[in-house]
Specification:
Structural class of chain B: mainly alpha
Largest sheet of chain A: 2 strands, antiparallel
Radius of gyration of chain B: 20 Å
Order of helices and strands of chain B: HHHHHHHEEHHHHHHH
Number of helices of chain A: 16
Oligomer: heterodimer
Chain lengths: 322, 320
């Protein structure tokens, strides 16, 4: 009986996966096209120059990586405020005075630990995700300051090369982005985990009763998010060629904006990593375009906030509140 | 004998229902009493009250939205904007009333817009108030052109720093507002509605409560109290500054949680939040006394929030 129920639930989740859940991705893609058309009319020579496009490809990977991770947590009806702190911690660990062979596993283990603690706090202790990740953000940032009080230290050389290099004449950042994007989309749409995540995010009670491992799925989302944040931290460390305990400060919120712009709802179950790519590109294009049009950064703040509210207004929910 | 056992049970039940801040304050006081008795002297505690008052007032506003199952992440930006507005050279020679009115109107307007957006768009309060925060920070930069003024009215400075006898003025403001908040939340019908809408929005709506208006009210109160906190903090600082109050967003939420509110639930009270604020400020200051620096404080603060949220949630669930 339970198996039948579960099969029905999963089939429903699967059918919805392609159309209803992805409407945000279509909307974001359309907005992106309009933006690009606009820029093509106003400043084609500058925006679509090889130099500017190369810059975008080098700048956007950290935001994309963090937003992809955030997408998984949002799909599970969670929220991860600790993304920025994990990026900072990774930057601090990777510039410690240790052999490179030890630093990479250490950074990965640290990220997995943070994700697991977040997930268990939310699932087992029943702490609200915002409070749980707020608390872990505070702790992780404290640890980061212990390891690296001020910017400094040397990044591993291979990391600097892996970020600064280019393949086939394209910046390495593009390949970081493509790899992460392809991995996340495959995980979401080609594995059982993705299906479970949709089912559990949309209706946790039904998922639990049908025998889905809803708790493990949720915890996994936080671990995935922290790991992707760590990769973003590694990229930023390689790009700076040195450590900075505040390098990811703005990314906790920007990652939410990126995912939300791509049509992932904060109430869980709707959206997905496919939409996050155009979502992040919209954000990147807008801030890049405003810089190119030499709009004051003061106004950019106002614009970014208004944009966030507009993006969220498109997708109405049943209940007002958190 | 049975009576004694009953009495014990009742005591245990009362103890479990008390906000985490009570235990925290008891613990911090014990540590201070043993290690640094001078920490508990009246003059020092009054100094702490002056330091805690702005946060305490902002956290009172946050209490309304958290009880109402929402959240206000724009309080820090409201503080920053109020500070920039009232430190502007424009106000030199203008009567105090107008300055205070301008500050409070700013906060109230932000709160109302937050409330309208949250209720009309049915969007996540987290995202709406974050977006609002970004807009307000930008407005602050635009108004001040990146260089805030230092025209702070003497009376506002007195509100932030002054003393009546040896007691800080800001402490009295905090106390008055806490009384008012407790009155609204406990004694009049709006408070009952806020609790009901936070506890079970659907049930509240079916009972005929206009939950949208209630939520709008809560957000308006939060904006108004954030502006009041910004006014007091500006008085304490005495000049205009960029990015004043950034850390008040997280601290105010922490104070509400330590005060016994369950996030996404109806628990929480004005006095709980006052205690939560007191605990937070006492703890951070005691850590300074013990020579902890910023990293240590961040770590301990985070752990205490998680533990308080976890423990309190658990006891509530078991008793329910």
């Amino acid at each position: 009986m339970a198996a039948l129920q579960m099969a029905g639930l999963l089939r429903r989740a699967d059918q919805h996966a392609s159309t209803f859940r992805q409407r945000g991705a279509f909307a974001a893609g359309a907005v992106l096209l309009v933006l690009w058309l606009g820029l093509a009319l106003v400043i084609p020579a500058i925006f679509f120059s090889a130099e500017n496009l190369g810059n975008l490809m080098r700048q956007l990977p950290p935001l994309l990586l963090a937003s992809l991770g955030q997408t998984f947590v949002l799909l599970s009806a969670g929220f991860d405020l600790s993304v920025g702190a994990v990026i900072n911690l990774t930057s601090a660990i990777l510039t410690l005075d240790l052999p490179t062979g030890a630093k990479l596993p250490l950074a990965a283990v640290a990220a997995i630990a943070v994700g697991t603690v977040n997930g268990l706090g939310v699932v087992r202790l029943g702490i609200h995700p915002i409070i749980m990740t707020l608390a872990s953000m505070s702790v992780v940032q404290g640890l980061t300051f212990v390891l690296l009080p001020v910017p400094g230290g040397d990044a591993p050389e291979f990391l600097v090369a892996a970020v600064a290099g280019s393949f086939f004449g394209l910046p390495a950042g593009l390949f970081w982005s493509l790899a992460a994007f392809a991995g996340c989309v495959a995980l979401m749409h080609r594995t059982r985990f993705g299906l479970w995540l949709y089912a559990a995010g949309e209706n946790p009670e039904a998922a639990r009763i049908s025998g889905l491992p809803a708790a493990s799925v949720k915890v996994s989302c936080y671990v995935i998010c922290s790991l992707l944040a760590a990769v973003a931290g590694a990229y930023l460390t390689g790009r700076l060629a040195s450590g900075d305990p505040l390098v990811g400060r703005s990314l906790a919120l920007d990652s939410v904006i990126g995912a939300a712009m791509g049509g992932t709802l904060l109430s869980g179950g709707i959206g997905g990593p496919i939409g996050t790519l155009p979502g992040v590109l919209i954000l990147g294009t807008i801030s890049n375009g405003m810089n190119l049009l030499s709009i004051s950064p003061f106004y950019q703040h106002v614009f970014k906030g208004a944009l966030l509210i507009a993006a969220i207004a498109i997708f109405r929910r049943k209940e007002a509140g958190l | 004998m049975r009576r004694l056992a009953e009495f014990g049970h009742r005591c245990a039940a009362i103890a479990a229902a008390m906000p985490p801040a009570v235990w925290g304050i008891a613990g911090v006081s014990c540590v201070a009493y043993i290690a640094r008795p001078e920490f508990l002297s009246v003059p020092f505690l009054l100094l702490l009250v002056r330091q805690a008052a702005p946060l305490g007032i902002v956290a009172l506003g946050q209490t309304f939205v958290v009880i109402n199952r929402s959240l206000d992440l724009s309080v820090g930006a409201v503080i920053a904007l109020v500070n920039i507005i009232i430190s502007d050279r424009f106000w030199i020679g203008v009567p105090l009333v107008w300055i205070v009115l301008a500050a409070l109107a700013t906060g109230l307007a932000v709160g109302i817009v937050n409330g309208l957006l949250v209720t009309r768009l049915r969007a996540s309060a987290v995202v709406i108030t974050l977006g609002m925060a970004s807009i307000l920070v930008g407005l602050g930069y635009i108004i001040s052109d990146g260089a805030p003024g230092n025209a702070m009215h003497e009376t506002i400075k007195w509100l932030g720093r002054g003393r009546i006898g040896s007691a800080p003025v800001s402490g009295f403001v905090w106390l008055l507002l806490a009384l008012a908040a407790a009155f609204v939340l406990r004694k009049i019908v709006v408070g009952t509605f806020i609790h009901a809408a936070g506890d079970n929005p659907s049930a509240a709506r079916f009972s005929g409560i206009r939950t949208d208006r209630v939520l709008l009210f809560s957000h308006a109160v939060s904006g108004l109290l954030a502006a009041t906190g910004g006014l007091i903090l500006s008085g304490l600082i005495g000049v205009g500054a960029l990015n004043l109050g950034t850390d008040y967003v997280l601290s105010s939420i922490a104070a509400v949680i330590l005060g016994g509110a369950v996030f996404g639930g109806a628990a929480g009270s004005a006095w709980g939040t006052v205690l939560g604020t007191a605990l937070l400020v006492m703890m951070l200051n005691l850590m300074t006394v013990f020579g902890f620096d910023e990293p240590g404080k961040l770590i301990v603060q985070g752990m205490i929030i998680a533990v308080a949220a976890g423990l309190y949630r658990r006891t509530r669930r078991e008793s329910a």
